[in-house]
Amino acid sequence: MHALVVFFDAEADQAVRSLWRRIGARSELPPHLTYAAAGTIGPKVRAELREDLSRLWLPDVWLQTLSATGSTLQLGAVVDAELLAVHSAVHDVLAGRVKNPHGRHLPGTWVPHCTLVDGEDDEVRAAFAELHPITPIRAKTREMAIVDTQTGSIDPLRNASTAPR
């Protein structure tokens, strides 16, 4: 599966990693927020995303809601008009051009978050108890990229230093 993600600035990255250390969690990827996922996001679509993203401002995200869904503990992002506008723009490019889009990332169903731990129910409950109450984290976008979730390879689409002002 391919996922379109944003990686956070150094300060937010370290804040999330600190939470991971507190609960003994590990991740193959740096802390991130997933905008979209599909079976395949091919080269042509990636080129279109690069073009469209070059014109978009990627908003900061406030990670401040601790929640457990099933066997996942996540740090939820505050949803505002700017975040939804970027999400919608991304999906306008992806619509009808990717194989097997993942439903939970589509507009109207997307719950933006950074995963803290995937585990057994008791592990999630213990992690929640350890981290609650949570101190909000302001996460600035460092980079937007396509991640191959099977191999871990990262294809950068846009670096924050190339963002429009």
Fold and architecture overview:
This protein has helices at 10-23, 43-53, 81-94, 121-131; strands at 2-8, 32-40, 61-69, 72-77, 99-101, 113-118, 137-139, 141-148, 154-159. It has 165 residues and is of the alpha+beta class. The chain has a single domain, classed as Cyclic phosphodiesterase (Cyclic Phosphodiesterase, Chain: A). α2 packs antiparallel against α3. The chain is globular, with a radius of gyration of 15 Å. It starts with a strand and ends in a 6-residue tail after the last strand. This is 2'-5' RNA ligase superfamily protein. Pfam families: 2_5_RNA_ligase2. It comes from Saccharothrix texasensis. InterPro entries: Cyclic_Pdiesterase.
Quickly describe the structure:
With 165 residues, this protein is an alpha+beta fold. The protein has four helices and nine strands; from the N terminus they run E-H-E-H-E-E-H-E-E-H-E-E-E.
Structure summary, number of beta strands: 9
Uncertain residue ranges: none
Strand content: 25-35%
Label the overall shape: globular
The largest sheet, given as strand count, sense and whether it forms a barrel, is: 5 strands, antiparallel
Count of spatially separate domains: 1
Structural class: alpha+beta
CATH topology: Cyclic Phosphodiesterase, Chain: A
Distance N to C terminus: 32 Å
User: How are helices and strands ordered from N to C?
Assistant: EHEHEEHEEHEEE
Level-1 CATH class name: Alpha Beta
CATH superfamily: Cyclic phosphodiesterase
Helix content: 25-40%
CATH architecture identity: Alpha-Beta Complex
Number of helices: 4
C-alpha-based Rg, rounded = 15 Å
Widest sheet: strand ordering? 5-2-1-8-9
* Integer average pLDDT: 94
Organism: Saccharothrix texasensis
Protein name: 2'-5' RNA ligase superfamily protein
Pfam families: 2_5_RNA_ligase2
